[in-house]
Amino acid sequence: MSGSMWRGDAVDLDAYLTRVGFQGEVAPDLSTLRRLHTAHVGAIAFDNLDALLGRTAVPLDVDSVQDKIVRQGRGGWCLEQVVLMAAVLDRIGFTFTAFAGRTRIRTGDKFGPALHVALLVELDGERWLHDVSFGAHGLHEPILFAENARLDGDFSFDLLREPTGEHVLRFLRPEGPAELYGFTADVRYPSDFELLNHFCLTHPRSPFNHRMILQRTRPEVRHLLAGNVLAEIRPGEPATFRELGEDEVLSAPEEIFGITLEPGDVQTLRKTLAGP
């Protein structure tokens, strides 16, 4: 196995496939790509808990990310999940590049920092947007990277191109389309991820380091916990919201999002959420 920058040689593929519940053989084809995408987002939550636990130097090397997400049963945030997914795809034999997008759904800001990272996978002369780390509003399987592409199903998406040349991924909800992020296909590399990771962990404007954000995408329901507000998104229905009490918030990582935490981490989170 030649050592590419995506470190497919370092990934324990069998352990990863077990972690996400993937059944059957894998090959660098569209069927595998789709099934991997759905399995990953169903099993692995978006999880910003390290920032709340005071860990301001979360490593992005494949060994560390794999240990956390695969072996410890944790989730991970965007950059960690992309590092893991890229290593898995590299190991299987896919060809792809990474790009960075400017999140719009929480801010409506088309000009914020490009903090979200995802992949464009090349297959049979086409490219597919493969994004396993956007969370509760994100894709459950790849969408063709083409102008006016659509992904229809219980949860539907489309891909538009603006006059500026930016592509925009939209989540098509009953209450109206939601712009998730805008992006260009400019290639990003693992070295770029380190800068984004530092911003997300430490910058005062980061949306990820001052309140709990957990997200999980399953076929029947998508969950998003931001602070103490839990959103549930079901097929064909407007999202519902409810406030959780402190004990519910602390049990949510495991009970709702399938995240395994150490008892000491739960106690630290309780102190952090209680504030000074």
UniProtKB/TrEMBL annotation:
Listed InterPro entries: Arylamine_N-AcTrfase (IPR001447), Papain-like_cys_pep_sf (IPR038765)
Pfam families per UniProt: Acetyltransf_2 (PF00797)
Family indicated by similarity: Belongs to the arylamine N-acetyltransferase family.
This protein's name: Arylamine N-acetyltransferase
Natural source organism: Lentzea cavernae
